[in-house]
Every structure is written in C-alpha cells, then in structure tokens.
C-alpha cells in the first residue's frame, strides 16, 4: 500500500480502517516483537497493550503525537522506538516502563525531558538527536546505567557538569550542535571511549591525553586551529591528525564500527539516519559500550 493511501486511511478512526493499516495483531508474536514502523498511524493501537510479554516495540516513522496510559501494561518492554514521529513531549507513560534499556526519541519536536525519565534505571541507550533541545536535560545525568547518549543535531550550546556522574557512559555523540567550546565536563570523564563533536563551532581543543579509556574522537568540521592531543593508539577523525597521514572519512569509520556490532535488535528505520549527519544506531549495541 502506498504511503498516500495509508495517510488518508490513517485519518479514519474506525476499527476496520485501523485493522487495514495494522494487519493481524490478534495474537502475541512469537519473537515478542511488534514493528509498526512507517505505517502512517496517528493513534496507538490499544490491542498491542494486551501483549504483556512484549520485549520490542517499533513505532518509528509515523504520525504519533501521544501514547495511551494503557502502554503501562507492557512492563517487559526493553526496546522502544518512537523516532520520526511528531511528539512535542515525551509521553509520561514511557517513564513507567522500568525494564526499558533502549529508547529512541530522535527526529521529533521535543524541547525537554520530564523528571520522571529518571525512573528508567535500566536505560543504557538514549537517542534524542534531531529535536529542539537547547540544553542537554540534566535528568539524563540521573540514569546510572547509561552507556550511549546520542544528542546530535540539536541547538545545544553546553553540557551540564552533572554528566560526569554517569560512570558507565562510554560514548557521547554531539555532532551538529552549537558547541562553541569543547565541553569541560568531558575532560573529567576518563571512562569515555567515543567522543563525537563533529560539526560544531569549537575553535580550540584541550589535550585529551589523560582520558585513558578514549578510543575514538571525531572533531572534524570545526573552525579549530589545533587538533586535540590524545594518548597513543587513539583514533582521531579531523584535520591535522599527524598519526594518520590521510584521515579516514566519516563513513569509513562508521563502517569499521559496524563490523564489530550486532544489529539484530535495532529498528531498520533508525539505521537510515546517516543523512542527518548522525551515526548508525548500530553503535548503541557495540561491544565498546
């Protein structure tokens, strides 16, 4: 069915039209996964909430603006993809899903995150790229198991110092934001393995040699006059990288990272975000994290 036809039918709330869009969802899927990506749906199908053993729910690339309170019944949910929708705020019911480990919120219209997000103590991967954040929400600093934070393509100018409390954080992706200086808090996070500050307005890079866990730093497309100094063996992607005579292109670095990952738990709609100057969510489950 073409997207145009789906879009027209999506306006009709009758059960028959919704079933036409969603297909047969009468029984719990054997793989405990429901993928409703790119279905042009405008309201969440309540019958999904009957699948209380559901582990993965993909709602990417739709026209959703809210979620029903009945979603709270999905207490076994571990992966939730809400990217490429029309959310202006994170529905609070999401914060009741305490087993969530991966949450995709990218490409919406969200300006802030609720304090209730701190209830998601098992969350280890959070994608909030391409939204309307002007500041990195401090509630993120209350997610003790967070390993991957992707906040690129937002008008963010600074990162809160509280971020250093996230001792499990291994990678932070801030490409395409409005950083005018290298975030000082990152200098106090020796456990970081990947730092991406590509496409910002950073004019000077401090030494990163003391970040002993660092494996990759991407600093290209900044108006900087120096390259960040790093410890031996750390890969740098940007100008004046004397350790690599011809720095590899961004897509080559991404390809190398993808080879070391398992992508079976990542929704296909999220992996198409390369054209937004972000990296593939495959890194969300990489062995580096």
Which features does this protein show?
little secondary structure; 9% helix; disordered C terminus; Leucine-rich repeat, LRR (right-handed beta-alpha superhelix)
Q: Note poorly predicted spans.
A: 1-14, 243-249, 266-289
Using the alpha-carbon principal axes, give the shape.
elongated
- End-to-end separation in angstroms reads 39 Å
Total number of helices? 3
CATH superfamily: Ribonuclease Inhibitor
Radius of gyration: 20 Å
Estimated share of beta-strand residues: 5-15%
Number of strands: 10
Oligomer: single chain
Describe the SSE topology.
Blueprint: H1 3-10, H2 15-22, E1 33-35, E2 56-58, E3 79-81, E4 102-104, E5 125-127, E6 148-150, E7 171-173, E8 194-196, E9 216-218, E10 235-237, H3 250-259
Explained architecture:
This protein is largely without helices or strands. The chain has one domain (78-285): Leucine-rich repeat, LRR (right-handed beta-alpha superhelix). 9% of the residues lie in helices and 10% in strands. It has 3 helices and 10 strands. The chain has helices at residues 3-10, 15-22, 250-259; strands at residues 33-35, 56-58, 79-81, 102-104, 125-127, 148-150, 171-173, 194-196, 216-218, 235-237. The chain has a 10-stranded parallel β-sheet, with no helix packed on it. The longest helix is centred in the C-terminal third of the chain and has 10 residues, at 250-259. It is elongated, with a radius of gyration of 20 Å. It starts with a helix and ends in a 30-residue tail after the last helix. The model is unreliable at 1-14, 243-249 and 266-289 (pLDDT under 50). This is Leucine-rich repeat-containing protein 10. Keywords: Leucine-rich repeat, Repeat. One of its GO terms (cellular component) is cytoplasm.
């Amino acid at each position: 069915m073409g997207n145009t036809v789906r879009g027209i039918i999506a306006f009709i709330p009758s059960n028959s039209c919704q079933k036409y869009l969603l297909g047969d969802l009468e029984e719990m899927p054997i793989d405990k996964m429901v993928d409703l990506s790119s279905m042009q749906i405008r309201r969440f199908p309540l019958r999904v909430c009957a699948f209380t053993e559901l582990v993965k729910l993909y709602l990417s690339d739709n026209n959703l603006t809210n979620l029903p309170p009945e979603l709270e019944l999905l207490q076994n949910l571990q992966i939730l993809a809400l990217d490429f929708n029309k959310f202006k705020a994170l529905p609070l019911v999401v914060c009741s899903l305490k087993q969530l480990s991966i949450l995709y919120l990218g490409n919406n219209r969200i300006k802030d995150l609720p304090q209730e997000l701190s209830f998601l103590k098992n969350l280890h991967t959070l994608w909030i790229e391409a939204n309307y954040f002007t500041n990195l929400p401090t509630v993120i600093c209350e997610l003790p198991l967070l390993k991957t934070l992707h906040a690129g393509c937002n008008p963010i100018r600074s990162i809160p110092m509280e971020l250093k409390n996230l001792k499990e954080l291994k990678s932070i992706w801030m490409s395409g934001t409005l950083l005018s200086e290298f975030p000082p808090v990152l200098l106090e996070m020796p456990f970081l393995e990947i730092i991406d500050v590509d496409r910002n307005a950073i004019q000077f890079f401090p030494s990163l040699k003391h970040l002993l866990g660092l494996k990759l730093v991407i600093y290209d497309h900044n108006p900087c006059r120096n390259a960040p100094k790093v410890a031996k063996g750390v890969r740098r992607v940007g100008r004046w990288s004397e350790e690599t005579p011809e720095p590899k292109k961004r897509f080559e670095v991404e390809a190398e990272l993808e080879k070391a990952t398992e992508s079976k738990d990542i929704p296909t709609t999220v992996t198409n975000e390369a054209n937004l100057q972000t990296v593939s969510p495959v890194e969300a489950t990489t062995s580096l994290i």
